[in-house]
């Protein structure tokens, strides 16, 4: 929090990494897979441009096309993450 002209201003810049583990049904079999969801850099008031990068873990028994599908599934977390960060921004404003 910064005070400018006797008014509180909230500002932040963050990077976020989420570690993910889960089960996917691949070719009729349940397989455990995981990876990391990286949100490179985001700032207060700039969540509309939020982007994420997905890095799958090194699973030897999963084909490349299946890893691509897992990455696409993990990218679906973008909207819920954005909503939580908007909630966080609102909490900061209310202070």
Task: Kindly describe this structure.
The chain is of the alpha+beta class and 95 residues long. Helix content is 31%, strand content 41%. It contains two helices and five strands; from the N terminus they run βββββαα. It has helices at 64-75, 78-94, and strands at residues 2-4, 7-9, 13-26, 29-43, 53-56. The protein has a three-stranded antiparallel beta sheet, covered by helices on one side. The chain is elongated. The chain starts with a strand and ends with a helix. The relative contact order is 0.20. The mean pLDDT is 84.
Mean pLDDT: 84
List the helices and strands in order.
EEEEEHH
Radius of gyration: 18 Å
What characterizes the major β-sheet? 3 strands, antiparallel
Spatial separation of the terminal alpha carbons:
10 Å
Number of strands: 5
What share of residues are in beta strands? 35-45%
SS summary, helix count: 2
Helix content: 25-40%
Uncertain residue ranges:
none
Strand line-up in the sheet with most strands = 3-4-5
Structural class: alpha+beta
Shape: elongated
List keywords for this structure.
95 residues; single chain; alpha+beta; 2 helices; three-stranded antiparallel beta sheet; two-stranded antiparallel ribbon
């Amino acid at each position: 929090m910064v005070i400018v002209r006797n008014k509180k201003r909230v500002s932040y810049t963050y990077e976020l990494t989420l570690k993910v583990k889960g089960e996917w049904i691949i070719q009729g079999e349940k397989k455990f897979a995981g990876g990391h969801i990286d949100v490179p850099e985001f700032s207060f008031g700039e969540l509309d441009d939020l982007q994420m990068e997905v890095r799958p873990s090194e699973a030897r028994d999963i084909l490349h096309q299946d890893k691509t599908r897992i990455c696409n599934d993990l990218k679906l977390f973008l909207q819920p993450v954005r909503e939580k960060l908007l909630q966080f921004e609102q909490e900061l404003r209310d202070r």
